[in-house]
Amino acid sequence: MNLHSTKPIIVLVRTQLPQNIGSTARAMKNCGLHDLRLVKPREEWPNDGARSMAAGADDILSNIKVFETIAEALYDVSHVFALTARNRDITKLELSPEQAALNIIEYTKNKENTAILFGPEQSGLTNEEISIANSLVRIPLEKFFSSLNLSQAVLLMSWEWRKQVLKNSILEKD
Prior knowledge:
- This protein is an alpha/beta fold.
- The protein contains seven helices and seven strands; from the N terminus they run βαβααβαββαβαβα.
- It has helices at 18-30, 51-54, 58-62, 70-73, 97-109, 127-130, 150-167, and strands spanning 9-13, 36-39, 65-67, 79-83, 93-95, 114-118, 135-137.
- β1 (9-13), α1 (18-30) and β2 form a beta-alpha-beta unit.
- The longest helix has 18 residues, at 150-167.
- It starts with 8 loop residues before the first strand and ends in a 7-residue tail after the last helix.
- 42% of the residues are buried.
């Protein structure tokens, strides 16, 4: 089964630093993901600040699409997984990274597009932005220090997806 067109899409919302976009592209490429979308990045895109951190993932940077709203960025997506480190007053299905990856694989088998939504570095996603998602993903980190760099969070989720794909032998050899 070729999953290239139905791999999860990574969506960065209001990203502040171009370097984090570059390191996100690098993390994605490490795990075989290719579709990176930006929603209202603080710095104009394209931005040379991302190139040095991409370290060979220039193809991902070259194909980034920029949108004004999350809804526009998710125009072709059926299922959205939003990451948060904070407790929320939102009634949403909450998943671990592993559970989210398994759900993404199931949706992929049905040829449904999925996206993983990440908020800005300083504050994360707002409750309103999270409300767009079908599920909330919380990485079970240290209770009093659960903050990750944006690209670390992307790498963790991308790796969890890839690990489940490899475990289930559903990714064609490149």
